């Protein structure tokens, strides 16, 4: 029944898409042959389905913290120390806000200061419970105590800022993202493994994120041809056929959706396989499967990514452009699938528009 509806909607949507895209038809051909995708989406058996009560991450999936590898250094001679109750509560609060396992923050706290037992400024100039350098603090320090300011020596601020920095460094982008984020915190392989060793000693845990995430960064591939208009029309036809269906966090269809499941299903209609979560979908495009589009030059079928409930440094929502002239999306948002105004998202810390390119599957 739904296939018949999509077919009927396609007849209506195609002319609209053509008009909105302009008179020229975009043909997805390349003199060099099929364009190869840089980042592909594997079937990843390591994904953990997050159930009610688990840490919630967009898409309802996560992955286990990676096991420590070699080399290790401090953890070979210093076992995981007990955590004072007040410090543990700071780890838990920061983990709840940034959707991370508290044990990962505890691993850093142990590696840096044994949870505050050694508070001296380091020889390199790092300060506070989680040992921030002044320049890093200036960029990522946040108020964790609620007093309205970010103090590098305040324990609550220090722990919350560590969670903020890990998130900005892509800690939720799969096992590789965890290791890259820890390496960004301290540029040493032994440090990464020490932290993971301590995190495991405190109970390990699950990171709310997509194990197939390509990782943050990348500027896309502007040389890619755009998808053909007929394919964009097919995407929009499928999306339009779902209008009114409920938005349900973590839902995968076919009659209820969250934002990224909706986008994934729409592009699957033309054989394009996206990752499961919004953050991973942006990273997939940015790693070579499309290119960024300036606001004002978007077309129907483009994807808009913004931060939302996951904090200012992590993409938490994805929308499909439907009518650029009126800044309307078609998306699973609010309480249902519908058309929404994306103009009110443009002032968010993260706001970007990306065009999926024609790449080889």
Bin the helical content.
25-40%
Overall form: elongated
Number of domains: 2
CATH topology description of the largest domain = endopeptidase fold (from Nostoc punctiforme)
What is the quaternary state of this protein? Answer: single chain
Strand order within the widest beta sheet: 4-9-5-6-7-8
The number of distinct β-strands equals 9
Tally the helices.
11
Low-confidence stretches: 8-12, 14-36
Cα radius of gyration in angstroms: 22 Å
CATH homologous superfamily descriptor of the largest domain: endopeptidase domain like (from Nostoc punctiforme)
Largest sheet, in brief, is: 6 strands, antiparallel
Distance between the termini: 28 Å
CATH architecture of the largest domain: Alpha-Beta Complex
CATH class of the largest domain: Alpha Beta
Strand content: 5-15%
Structural class: alpha+beta
Mean pLDDT: 87
In short:
The chain has 361 residues and is of the alpha+beta class. It has helices at 2-21, 74-77, 85-98, 102-113, 134-140, 155-168, 174-185, 189-201, 229-241, 259-268, 278-289, and strands at residues 48-49, 61-64, 206-208, 290-293, 303-307, 315-323, 328-333, 336-338, 351-356.
């Amino acid at each position: 029944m739904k296939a018949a509806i999509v077919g009927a909607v396609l007849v209506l949507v195609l002319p609209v898409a053509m008009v909105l895209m302009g008179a020229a038809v975009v043909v997805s051909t390349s003199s060099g042959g099929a364009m190869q995708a840089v980042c592909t989406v594997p079937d990843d058996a390591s994904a953990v389905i997050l159930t009610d009560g688990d840490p919630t991450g967009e898409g309802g999936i996560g992955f286990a913290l990676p096991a420590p590898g070699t080399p290790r250094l401090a953890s070979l001679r210093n076992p995981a120390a007990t955590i004072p109750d007040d410090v543990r509560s700071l780890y838990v609060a920061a983990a709840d806000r940034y959707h991370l396992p508290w044990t990962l923050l505890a691993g850093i706290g142990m590696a840096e200061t044994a949870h505050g037992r050694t508070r001296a400024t380091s020889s390199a100039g790092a300060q506070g419970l989680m040992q921030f350098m002044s320049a890093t603090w200036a960029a990522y320090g946040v108020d964790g105590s609620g007093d309205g300011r970010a103090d590098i020596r305040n324990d609550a601020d220090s722990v919350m800022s560590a969670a903020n920095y890990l998130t900005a460094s892509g800690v939720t982008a799969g096992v590789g993202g965890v290791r890259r984020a820890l390496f960004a915190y301290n540029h040493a392989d032994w440090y990464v493994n020490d932290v993971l060793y301590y995190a495991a000693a405190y109970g390990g845990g699950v990171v709310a994120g997509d194990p197939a995430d390509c990782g943050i960064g990348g500027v896309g591939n502007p040389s890619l041809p755009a998808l053909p208009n007929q394919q964009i029309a097919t995407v929009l036809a499928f999306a339009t056929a779902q209008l009114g269906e409920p938005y349900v966090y973590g839902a995968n269809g076919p009659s209820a959706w969250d934002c990224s499941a909706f986008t994934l299903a729409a592009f699957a209609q033309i054989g394009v396989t996206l990752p499961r979560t919004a953050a991973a979908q942006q990273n997939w495009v940015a790693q070579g499967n499309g290119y960024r589009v300036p606001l004002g030059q978007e077309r129907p079928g483009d994807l808009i990514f913004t931060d939302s409930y996951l904090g200012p440094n992590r993409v938490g929502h994805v929308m499909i452009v439907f009518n650029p002239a009126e800044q309307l999306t078609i998306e699973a948002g609010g309480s249902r699938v519908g058309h929404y105004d994306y103009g009110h998202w443009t002032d968010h810390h993260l706001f970007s528009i990306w065009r999926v390119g024609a790449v080889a599957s």
